[in-house]
Design brief:
Blueprint: E1 32-41, E2 48-57, H1 58-66, H2 70-90, E3 115-123, E4 126-127, E5 133-137, H3 138-147, H4 150-163, H5 168-171
Antiparallel strand pairs: 1-2, 1-3, 3-4, 3-5
Bound molecules: zinc ion.
Zinc ion (ZN) binds next to helix 1.
Length: 182
């Protein structure tokens, strides 16, 4: 299953081929990995700006998760389960073509968001399965951030500093813990 174009590396305009953290070849090694991209949308449908993008192999994601607090990970997981259950109740047969047009956990539409993030679980240059990608709205990301302990927030901040290469002038746009590898 082809990875949607939305998840391409914005610089090469091709699929991510290497882990942004350890540099492992994601394709040759048939690795499982996550792609995460964050966008800011301009008012009046005047387009959008990429805030950051990253591809992380599962090995690196596991290492990173090991540094987060157990409580934070459990809270995020419980939050996901609760919200996705509510969404399934509200909309039992979601149209797969809206996976990148609607927040997975709130049902909010893209046109009502000021910021959003998209995530994909891939393997060896393909989607891991048909539905292994989704979008989260600004609102939901904020709610998730509120669930994080100070320790977890610091760790995520450190991870962003080390791996995302965000220019300092943009940093003020990010609250701690904006990066959420799920
Ligand atoms: Zn890696």
């Amino acid at each position: 299953m082809k990875i949607p174009a939305k998840f391409e590396n914005s610089i090469s305009e091709k699929n991510f081929s290497h882990c942004s953290v350890c540099g492992a070849d994601l394709i040759a090694n048939n690795k499982d990995y996550l792609i995460e991209k964050a966008y800011k949308r301009f008012a009046n449908n005047l387009g959008e700006e990429l805030l950051f993008e990253i591809a992380v192999c599962f090995d690196c994601a596991e290492t990173m998760k090991g540094e987060l607090s157990k409580e934070s990970l459990e809270s995020i997981s419980a939050f996901f389960q609760k919200k996705s259950f509510e969404q399934k109740q509200a909309n039992p047969n979601p149209d797969p073509s809206i996976l990148l047009g609607q927040c997975l956990l709130s049902g909010k539409n893209l046109c009502d968001m000021q910021e959003y993030q998209v995530y994909a679980h891939c393997r060896g240059g393909q989607l891991a399965d048909h539905h292994s990608y989704y979008m989260l709205s600004d609102e939901i990301i904020e709610e998730i951030q509120e669930l994080l302990s100070d320790h977890t927030r610091d760790q995520l901040q450190k991870f962003s500093d080390d791996n995302l290469g965000i220019p300092p002038e943009l940093k003020k746009l990010f609250s701690n813990g904006d990066l959420i590898i799920l």
